[in-house]
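Aim 2 progress update. The chain analyzed this quarter is reproduced below.
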Amino acid sequence: MQAIRIHEGGELRYEEAPDPVAAPGEVLVELRSAALNRRDLLVRSPPNPVYQFPLPLIPGSDGAGIRRDTGEEVVIYPGLGWGDREDAAEADWRILGGPEDGTYAELVKLPEENVFAKPRRFSWEEAAAFPLAALTAFRALLPVGRLVGGETVLVLGAGSGVSTFAVSLAAQWGARVLVTSSSEEKIQRSRELGAEGGVLYTDDGWPQAVRELTGAGVDLVVDSVGATWMKSLRCLRKGGRLVVFGGTGGPSVELDVRFVYLNWLSIHGTTMGSGRDFAALLRMVEQGDWRPVIDSVRPLGEADAAMERLASGNHYGKLVLTV
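Predicted structure tokens:
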């Protein structure tokens, strides 16, 4: 098969690779499309040992295609070894695309429980675009964030894959949605997804601007930046919740502990979600009318260019590869 593989030094090669062989309990999927995630950049250029895997490696966590043994159109759940608990994954939990070969290829092998029926209203590109990012947004909003219809949620960083899904899902759930962004254009595009409006995080006083929009503050903040925790907390009403799942702004943060407990605030961490979360997300997809926001689509052989655009931060929505 043809695949994109990472070699030493982060070099990407579009080359022939051995066809995967499915063991008992596994299936082969003939991929039609795959999608990029920020995790792919980390796997390519590991910032720490967590992302260092044996090479060569086929990256990619998201994909959709044809199940070879049955001919079914399927979408891939990218979590491996989550376990039986819902509050957290077990120690062996990992994500497709490192250490196991991922979806930047013509074929991928997976445990049978990792393939689900492709959403009927999504194209191949849309189906590949949503699993990891939409599942992260879903779990942050609902199982962890406990969002209730009618509440107000603030989504940080309008334009990323996860944030676009968070806006659409929260709006479908009946919440009032606000966003932060570096540009008015991205705020306007978020309105098209269901957001009421937003503020520019390039302005120093953006938490106060959020409070002016809401009065008492928001009920829930969804934060993938990390370094913004204290500012996010200042956007919350008393008793509000902060859900965090990323550290694009850095791994460290300084908090005023007294501000947290004197305002009855809570901070929750989450990463992606379980297979049961994914099944619940698919039910929301079938009941909704939103579609994944796709920034651009390229052939598999142009994965390097797609990664460059992802790294630039200039994209809005998901980047997709056709196979």
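The CA atoms of residues 1 and 77 lie 22 Å apart. The mean pLDDT is 96. These observations will guide the mutagenesis experiments scheduled for the next reporting period.
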